[in-house]
Amino acid sequence: MTAKVGPAIAEETPVRGPGALSVYIRDYLARLRGGELGSAPAIVGLVVITAFFSIVHQGFLSAYNLEALVIQAAPIIVMAMGLVFVLLLGEIDLSAGTTGGLCSAIMAVLLLRHGQSWWVGVLAGLAVGLVIGYVMGWLRARAGIPSFVITLATFLAFQGLTLILVGGQGSVILPTGSPLISLENSFVPLWLGWTLLGIFVAGYAAIKLIDARGRRQSGLPATPVAVIVAKVVGVALLGSAFTYEMGLNRNLITNAFFSNKAQGEPWAVVLLVLLFVIWHFTLSRTRYGRHVYAVGGNEEAARRAGVVVSRIRISVFVICSGMAAVSGVVAASLLQSVQSNAGAGNTLLLAVGAAVIGGTSLFGGRGRMIDAVLGGLVVAVIINGMSDLIQGANSSGYEWVVTGAVLLLAAGFDAVVRRGRST
């Protein structure tokens, strides 16, 4: 049996019956028993580990720590969003981390050594990322070279190019006051944060209600209004709690001589939400998204249905490398510099782990953009919580052990579910 085409997500599949809540719940539980878990494991895991660290570390959910958690997670989540596209086709991009590092190095060199504007540097870095993705996609789709081999080679090559660009000083410091630094180190005005939250919740509610109405008018099963209301209220409450917490002053030094306040969400949060909306819409509501799921689920069937498989395969690598470039810019903003080893560390491993932990299958055909967000938060919570829980020289070691164990558990669970569906 071939893999299912499309996002096999239990909580999003409508009920067989117009607005029958009991039938919807019964079908939902049946799908859970059948292995259609969707993002449920990631959500449960996120709640459990957050509750655990909140108990053992009283300041874990403080505004100051939440800010640190979000800005640390941002580069990982951005890269994981791009990797979701590649993983949906059962491919892999081992060079996403060094691609981001190379693109950020190009950006920094243009700014510091050639006096270019920040936006010129950003556009140049993004353009290089897109070209890299096209070349790798072409080699995979046209030349037939396995993606593992292509991206392993480019991983090494891009790491070397970054070392050459940055030079012997080891890093390129971004100019003080640059808008690039503001991305991760300045904050959205309070009024704008609440306004954006209201727009997001209203848009989410409108889309859900319009979808349900359209399906009913077409005689198709639709999600009950009560379920839609519960989801909208849940999103509104979580968003309001986060926005309120971020509205508190997080500056640890506030006195008569230093009165600057740290209030509001980091601008990186706005970027994450914007990217999520764009790519979620692309995957779930466009013909291109349907073609991606079709190729990932059954390549031969997609080809016979008229899908240009090679074009889809090239495009996912372009998107992945483009998002890697964005991730490199975000990471440079966080560090306020570009290091000679940018992207060569654990960034890629954490991003792949985030996508898989969130629910994206390593075998292709199953996954959503929310997987990158949820998985990225799980990884960030583990790293942040372990650093507070375990102090000393070996704290990082325990962080990687726990993160690796969670990733192995998620991948093993994915394999078991896939095997169960094929029998």
Task: Describe the fold and architecture.
Helices cover 70% and strands 1% of the residues. It is mainly alpha-helical and 423 residues long. The protein has a domain at 10-38 and 73-186 and 266-372: Orthogonal Bundle (ABC transporter involved in vitamin B12 uptake, BtuC). Strands 1-2 form a two-stranded antiparallel ribbon. Helix 14 crosses helix 16 (395-422). The longest helix is centred in the middle third of the chain and has 28 residues, at 190-217. It is globular and about 65 Å long. The N and C termini lie close together (8 Å).
Descriptive terms for the model:
two-stranded antiparallel ribbon, ABC transporter involved in vitamin B12 uptake, BtuC, 16 helices, mainly alpha, 423 residues, disordered N terminus, globular, single chain
Largest pleated sheet: 2 strands, antiparallel
User: What is the CATH topology of the domain at 10-38 and 73-186 and 266-372?
Assistant: ABC transporter involved in vitamin B12 uptake, BtuC
- On the 0 to 100 scale, the average pLDDT is 84
> How do the strands line up in the largest sheet?
1-2
- Please trace the helix and strand order, writing H or E for each element: HHHHHHEHHHHHHHEHHH
- The first-level CATH class of the domain at 10-38 and 73-186 and 266-372 is given as Mainly Alpha
Percent helix, as a range, is: over 70%
Shape label: globular
What is the strand tally? 2
Beta-strand content:
under 5%
The helix/strand class is: mainly alpha
Q: Give start-end ranges of low-pLDDT stretches.
A: 1-19, 253-259
- Give the end-to-end Cα distance, rounded to a whole number of Å: 8 Å
The CATH level-2 architecture of the domain at 10-38 and 73-186 and 266-372 is identified as Orthogonal Bundle
Distinct helical segment count: 16
Whole-angstrom Rg: 22 Å
